[in-house]
Design brief:
The structure holds two protein chains of two kinds. By secondary structure, chain A is an alpha/beta fold. Helices cover 35% and strands 26% of the residues of chain A. In chain A, the strands form two sheets. A six-stranded mixed β-sheet of chain A has the order 6-7-8-3-9-10, sandwiched between helices. By secondary structure, chain B is an alpha+beta fold. Classes of the chains: A alpha/beta, B alpha+beta.
């Protein structure tokens, strides 16, 4: 059913923050992301990248325009419905990893199953599988604080994919990593993309952006294909 | 940052269909079990802080339990000291009606088998009838001498009782014995003397089977009563069996029924005994029975030292404020975590529930520890003072639950704050 429709469809999306002065962070953005796409979004800071990410991630609502996520028109959904949709369809990866420092690696990955409704009996096996998938099967009982940056980001990736989302939103996933680990994390992303996962990477690093099959630039709230 | 409000649909039923494949069962999304696990991690993270947070509640609940526990223990101690007889004694007499000219007429008579009737009731240990026998001009003397010149002495009164009365008023016989059912049934001419009456009549031994005379009728003295807990007039009297009094003096009815009852049976006996005596007109009897234990306790509760109670409440409020403060601090520290959870699909309600339950559990923990400490304090002091510690168990559990309630109240505001956190803003900071 939704196989044919794009995962993400932005129609004339404008997001403005009431002033004074009023700031229009996104200006009439039209964007369609097909299933299995690998898209990078580049742009200087202040260009509206974060706003676009928040809108895509259902963390913010467009002021004007329509956002269809996985075929669902999101404008009329209640906060709770948006939370449910977010849990089931989107996996987040953040620049600062956002792992709970006092919980083990396994617990951190399991956290994503709490709100997305992964059946209880499957939780543990899926978390182990996800951690094995990112190559951290031997680190499950560790605390995130004892891991290297690359390992932490791989935990975050495992957490993002455990609920079998339609879309991975990665916000500067390599921003806190050195060259070599950046490459490793991007390799992991690309493997996941090969397996059919739709991937959106937001970055200001041109090298990272160039790895994507499709790249768009955002500047001053306007989006252009590269 | 303000978000424009788009029209929202009210209620879940009106929500548009979400065509995102098969919906996962609601039962597996953030269940109570999940909530509790997250809460335990949230609380367990900072042990030192947890101790400091619970301390206020511990003190508050502890002082409440100690105050109430001491009041109960002390009350139990008092009633033990001077209530031992009063708590186990009851008296039943016929109700009387005051007539126009001021004389009192009893409405009914106590049946002669009254002791048998009431002793069948649960809680009645012994019962006995007692009544004064009118002897008119007759004198009670040890030797029947008709000496008109002798000064007139006040003769002792003549009382008639059933055989169980001595036990009912917890009297003791110093010498000889009290009469039994056989004497009463046969209307034997036997008598028992009160200690002072015996002294007045010049008798102190009964082994020689002395006689006394009521008028000119001789009665064999078979015992002397030394001490009684009720009806002290027994000590000044000559006591004969009821049957004898009925046969010799035409006694019409006994005056009252004395009962020795089990502790705490007062209310029950007061209700049942009149029915046992006269099922048709139980209202014709007046019962004086000790109030039941719970009534006594209620009275004592009112005596609880108000000052300490107020101090306990104040400590409890301070404890609640402490919980609110720490939870608020924890909310602002965990802004990043809250944002992450929201990004992972937690609703505002999920977040609020997490912090509410966290502070509720902290409060309950404080309440439990406080109640335990309070109980130990009461028991320890009671041990040192050699008192019997008396603590109402429901009160203890109630106090622990009160701690949980305080925690719940304290968590309300921080939980609202946590629920209002916008995930976007929260995710800018770290976890």
């Amino acid at each position: 059913m939704s196989q044919a429709s794009p995962v993400v469809e932005l129609v004339d999306v404008t997001r403005s923050f009431p002033g004074p002065p009023e700031v229009r962070a996104l200006k009439s953005v039209n964007l369609a992301i097909a299933r299995g796409d690998y898209l990078s979004i580049v742009g200087p800071s202040g260009s509206g990248k974060s706003t676009l990410l928040n809108v895509l991630g259902l963390l913010d609502r467009p002021t004007v325009g329509e956002y269809r996520l996985d075929g669902v028109s999101t404008g009329e959904l209640s906060e709770e419905q948006r939370a449910g949709l977010r849990a089931r369809t989107i996996g987040f990866v953040f620049q600062a990893f956002h792992l709970l420092p006092r919980r083990t690696v396994l617990d951190n990955v399991l956290l994503a199953t709490l709100y997305s409704g992964v059946p209880r009996v499957e939780r543990m096996s899926r978390a182990t599988a996800a951690l094995e998938r990112v190559g951290l099967g031997h680190r499950m009982g560790f605390l995130p604080t004892t891991l290297s940056g690359g390992e932490r980001q791989r935990v975050a990736v495992a957490r993002a994919v455990i609920a079998a989302p339609q879309l991975i939103l990665a916000d500067e996933p390599t921003g806190n990593l050195d060259q070599r680990t950046s490459g490793e994390v991007m390799d992991l992303f690309e493997e996941l993309n090969h397996d059919g996962l739709t991937l959106v990477v937001i970055t200001h690093d041109q090298a990272t952006a160039d790895r994507a099959a499709r790249s768009i630039r955002i500047a001053d709230g306007r989006v252009s294909e590269l | 940052m303000r978000r424009p409000r788009l029209p929202r649909l009210r209620g879940r039923t009106a929500a548009p269909e979400e065509p995102t494949g098969p919906r996962t069962p609601r039962a597996d999304r953030f269940t109570v079990q999940d909530l509790l696990v997250e809460v335990s991690h949230g609380i367990g993270g900072h042990t030192g802080r947890l101790v400091m947070t619970t301390l206020g509640t511990v003190l508050g609940i502890g002082s409440l339990v100690v105050t109430i526990g001491f009041a109960q223990t002390a009350a139990g101690q008092l009633s033990r000291q001077f209530d031992a007889v009063a708590a186990t004694q009851a008296v039943i007499s016929p109700a009387s009606t005051r007539s126009m000219n001021g004389t009192e007429t009893p409405n009914t008579r106590l049946p002669w088998d009254a002791p048998d009737r009431v002793e069948r009731l649960a809680g009645v240990e012994r019962a006995g009838l007692i009544g004064e026998v009118p002897i008119g001009e007759l004198q009670i003397t040890a030797v029947p001498i008709n000496d008109p010149s002798a000064p007139e002495v006040l003769s002792p009164t003549l009382l008639a009782t059933s055989d169980g009365l001595l036990d009912a008023v917890r009297g003791t016989v110093v010498t000889g014995r009290y009469f039994d059912a056989g004497h009463e049934l046969r209307a034997d001419r036997v008598a028992v003397l009160g200690a002072r009456a015996a002294e007045k009549l010049g008798l102190n031994r009964v082994d020689s089977q002395p006689s006394i005379f009521v008028g000119e009728r001789p009665y064999t003295v078979i015992g002397i009563v030394g001490e009684v807990q009720r009806r002290p007039d027994l000590l000044d009297a000559v006591i004969v069996p009821l049957g004898t009094a009925r046969a010799d003096f035409g006694l019409v009815a006994a005056e009252e029924l004395q009962l020795h009852i089990a502790p705490g049976a007062g209310a029950l006996v007061a209700e049942q005994a009149p029915i046992a005596l006269d099922p048709n007109q139980p209202e014709n009897f007046e019962v004086q029975a000790p109030r039941s234990g719970s009534e006594l306790q209620e009275n004592v509760q009112a005596d609880i030292n108000v000052v300490f109670l107020v101090l306990g409440v104040i400590a409890l409020l301070a404890g609640g404020l402490g919980i609110a403060n720490v939870t608020l601090l924890s909310v602002s520290e965990r802004t990043g975590e809250i944002g992450l959870r929201r990004a992972l699909g937690a609703t505002r309600r999920d977040i609020a529930a997490q912090f509410m339950v966290e502070s509720l559990v902290i409060g309950l923990l404080g309440g439990l520890i406080g109640a335990a400490v309070g109980v130990f304090a009461v028991v320890a002091v009671a041990l040192v003072q050699q008192w019997t510690p008396i603590i109402d168990l429901p009160m203890v559990f109630g106090a622990a639950l009160l701690g949980a309630l305080v925690g719940l109240g304290a968590g309300a505001y921080p939980a609202r704050r946590a629920a209002r956190i916008e995930p976007i803003a929260a995710l800018r900071g770290g976890v």
